[in-house]
Amino acid sequence: MAVGGALLFTLSARSARATLRNCSVRRWVLAGVAGIVVYPLAFYSAMNLVGVAVGTVVSLGSAPVFAAGIEFLAERRAVTRLWTLCTLVALLGTILLITGRQSDQAAGSAPLGVLLGLLARSGPCSSPICS
């Protein structure tokens, strides 16, 4: 990701420098960079701690929750009843998946793995497209 970002910046250096002079844009770029750095570290650590199935379900399944939260904070748009119902069902399924692990040796690290999975999805890029 770092090499790709550096290559992209180099190829578009003139317009990139002009864009980065704007302080409000610079904050978004830095937030994006932080998300790109944190995401793979948190995502793959979650996979290591809780397994691929649980880590992926937590990371991708939490995306609508974070997206709605960002939409509410940024645009003051309330969530719909249908979204709330669907999200509650998805959260219930995720909780059942997480708590259903009984004989795994890594069960003690499940809470940390789940938190890392949530961290992976809570960054500036909270869309599954970014994964």
What does it look like?
This protein has about 130 residues and is mostly helical. The chain has 7 helices and no strands. α3 (about 25-50) packs antiparallel against α4 (about 50-60). The chain is flat and about 55 Å long. The two termini are about 10 Å apart. The relative contact order is 0.17. Mean pLDDT is about 75; it is low at about 125-130.
Defining traits:
131 residues, mainly alpha, 7 helices, disordered C terminus
How would you summarize this macromolecular structure in one to three sentences?
The chain has helices at residues 2-11, 13-20, 23-50, 52-61, 63-75, 81-99, 110-122. 15% of the residues are buried. The protein is mostly helical and 131 residues long.
| Global structural class | mainly alpha
**What characteristic shape results from the CA principal axes?**
flat
Largest sheet: none
The radius of gyration over CA amounts to: 18 Å
Low-confidence stretches: 125-131
Helix-strand topology string: HHHHHHH
* Percentage of residues in strands: under 5%
> Please, how many helices?
7
Count of strand segments: 0
Distance between the amino and carboxyl termini: 12 Å
